[in-house]
Design a protein that fits this description.
5 strands, 7 helices, 15% strand, alpha/beta, single chain, 189 residues
């Protein structure tokens, strides 16, 4: 089950929103009256879904959406006046946040939230894959630097340096990156 944070200047609006989304079976619901309060809540708690009912008392809400997207994996739904929906969507498009125009149609909101949560999951998976690829690229860079050191200081050719690192990794039962790190510690000052 998911945890939801509803950010709205008025508690009554937040309660009404929660009543609308109750059929979606969220495990817990929290409320924040301002962007500052919401940021503090994110310091110690994670939410699966964040609904921002704009404007807030201390800011509009788009900067809050950008901050939340940067610091968490929460799905974000902004509720804005229909006449500025496209402008807000342009501003927060990089976050993966969804923008729904007000007045809110109950059915549209209930259909949008599962879509937003599924999108959040896809984005989280892509971020994990991206991090794994970055680690692999970093490993390759370090291994190439280590091979260069072996070529420069031991007179090996590229194939021999590659074989040396692979053999050391197998013999010591460690990753080639660890062998490369040890080589760099030895030859780079």
């Amino acid at each position: 089950m998911e945890k939801v944070l509803i950010i709205s200047t008025q508690k009554e609006s937040s309660d009404t929103l929660f009543d609308i989304i109750k059929p979606l079976d969220f495990s817990s619901y929290d409320y924040a009256a301002s962007g500052g309060e919401a940021r503090r809540k994110f310091d110690y708690m994670d939410f699966d879904l964040t609904i921002i009912n704009t404007p807030l008392s201390d800011e509009f809400g788009t900067d809050l959406a950008l901050d939340i997207a940067e610091k968490s994996l929460s799905a974000i739904l902004l509720l804005v006046k229909s006449d500025i929906k496209e402008q807000v969507q342009d501003k927060v498009s990089v976050t993966g946040a969804f923008v729904v125009g007000k007045p809110i149609n109950r059915q549209v909101l209930l259909q949008t939230i599962p879509f937003v949560l599924n999108s959040k999951q896809i984005i989280a998976t892509l971020r994990e894959q991206n991090q794994a690829l970055k680690r692999k690229v970093d490993d390759v860079k370090v291994i190439e630097r280590a091979k260069f050191c072996l070529i420069k200081y031991l007179g090996l050719d590229e194939k021999q340096a590659h074989r040396y690192i692979q053999k050391q990794a197998m013999d010591l039962r460690i990753a080639p990156r660890a062998v490369a790190d040890n080589i760099l510690k030895t030859y780079e000052i």
